[in-house]
């Protein structure tokens, strides 16, 4: 790769032409704008290189290889880089890059991920460009986000604002399928969140009707397993005293009660699959179930699995309690149990997140861009930034604009890299110039 200072002469030339358009920006910020523009084709070339290396979550060698490609990019910017092995949770590892500046400057955490959902057996493997549009595995989620991070940091270096900044870049290697136990696979990220004053997540930008929207909240992602049991016997005795209703009616009662009693804003509780019979069993992978039975036998067991998504921890706790109450109000002759697996916590809306958006919108105004509204949190999935949300203010959706994430044909608007890297560089520089209140 060429030197990160490679854009300086061209940036100066572009600055002389473009400065009037950026009159509300400081000279350093104008340099960031033009540096990002000048580096566009090199950024696309790096995106192509890392996209063409398969880094599906379970392709550990591929995840490590992409990480090794990125290490010199961060080292050239003065970052200390560490590869954190995660063999103990059956994952490849994480790349953390640290830049320590002025002791009184804000501490900023940048979050992205190296892995994709596309494993080596996927037919979707190569980067393809058509003008300002490109397709490829992870071009949005999240190799494109990594490019935005690097482009912004290079712009800060060119403008002289990187030297005093305190920045940690956390690129996880298993965001799409976090290793278990999750407390271990996310230990280093959580510690970085406890260190930070601000966290920025670089998954894809949310765009609706051509308008860029900010992500100040994301919902949790948890799962539940429900089992019901009943007294088996001849079907002619169903509903009678001593026989009861059987496991399937009890399962149906519980699931329909969830549907009727739980609805509220920003809460969903999908049922992914279920089975009932004599017996019904959950597969060892927790992703399947099987059952056998006869129409003249009262079923003795049923099982279902689903997810639970909430906007706040309070909503999680309250919903779990309500689900447990429904589960324990059993039909005659039946019993039931529900178990929860808490995976990704919510990134709840907060005053601090709203204040960060206000700062970003001030930058949008200075850049001549429209004000960004808030993207509905129920329309974004869970992400790694949620693990640090309890400890620091944050904004997500700082990556590029694209479509089709997690599907063959995933694509990205390459020109969105420019405005996203410019926004990020100026925001990080302004944050670094602030002395945060750490009382």
Automatic annotation (TrEMBL):
One Gene Ontology molecular-function label: metal ion binding
Coiled coil regions, renumbered to chain: none
Keyword annotations: Hydrolase, Metal-binding, Signal
Keyword Transmembrane: no
SUPFAM superfamilies to which the protein is assigned, alphabetical: Bacterial exopeptidase dimerisation domain, Zn-dependent exopeptidases
Gene3D superfamilies referenced in this protein's UniProt entry, alphabetically: 3.30.70.360, Zn peptidases
Domain Peptidase M20 dimerisation: 216-333
InterPro entries: Bact_exopeptidase_dim_dom, Peptidase_M20, Peptidase_M20_dimer, Peptidase_M20A
Signal peptide bounds: 1-23
Source superkingdom: Bacteria
Protein name (Swiss-Prot/TrEMBL): M20/M25/M40 family metallo-hydrolase
Organism, as annotated: Aurantiacibacter rhizosphaerae
